[in-house]
Amino acid sequence: MLEEIRHKIMDRNVEMRKFVDTWISDISPMASLALEENKVYARDCQVRFNGQFGYEILDGHYRHIIDIRKKTCICRTWQLRGIPSQHVVLAYQHAGQDPEDHVVHWYRKDTFMKAYNYFIQPIPNMKMWPHTSDIVIEPPEPKQMPDRPPKCRRKSKDEPRKKYGKLSRRGIKMTCSKCHQQGHNNKACKYVPGSSTQPASSSQPASSSQPQSLRQPIGYSQPPSSSVGSSQPPSSRQPRSCSQPPSSDQLRVQQALEKAGKSGEKRGRGDDDTSSITRGQCEEEVGEEKEHQHQHEETKGQRLWDLASTLMI
What we know:
The chain is mainly alpha-helical. It has a domain at 2-115. 38% of the residues lie in helices and 6% in strands. It has helices at residues 2-20, 29-41, 77-81, 86-95, 109-115, 212-215, 248-267, 272-312; strands at residues 46-49, 54-59, 62-67, 72-73. β1 (46-49) and β2 form a beta hairpin. α2 crosses α4 (86-95) and α7 runs antiparallel to α8. The longest helix is centred in the C-terminal third of the chain and has 41 residues, at 272-312. It is elongated. The two termini are 60 Å apart. Residues 198-243 and 269-276 have low confidence and may be disordered.
């Protein structure tokens, strides 16, 4: 690669020195073309001279001030480019001078030749270089780093760091595939199907942390385990363990009977007919209360099911 650069510089120096011989004037062709365009634009301007060094050029609705001694124009084109603008051209024509003589020196032929005044000397082949007795400097040996070698290629500065067309998952809530809850994945899920932590019947209120409440609303998959007004005798029901407390329905009926018994004793109605009527009324009231609670649970379960469907969508 270095040899190619050396050859290119040698050829360019020769071409640029030949290009200078094609110039018509003392300034470069680009500067000469810009100056000729400004001479054409200067025909539409008007000039006023103050008698010393100042000129006032009228260019349409604008008035430009020029000082030929300081070589300044209010449009600042002369100061920035180094080529006289149409206002400066008109001022020098009014003064009887050639505007080409006032072009800055870096557009001239002698300045251009100074840039290519140095030559690249030819060198022989590397095999023909003279051998020296100096110590040969070798590159350092590769050192094995303690970590694993990198597999990915190091990207350059102009290469994109990320692939386009792929959306980032940052800010998206993960959903567990087991319990369909958000905030964790199936690896960190603590829900075990068939465990003792799940509710045995649908009579208990459904909590937001139970996965079954999100799959289907309460009351549609399982009917209530027991009803107060059923004709099934108590002896045919499944026996409970000693450690399991009585259900909430039985506690409510028992409390209502005790309350009704106390009120009946106070009134003097302790016969069997009165006690049977009182027990039936208590069971009917408890059944209505349970039905109302069951409807509330169905409504709550339906809301949870709609919320879960919306989140999964």
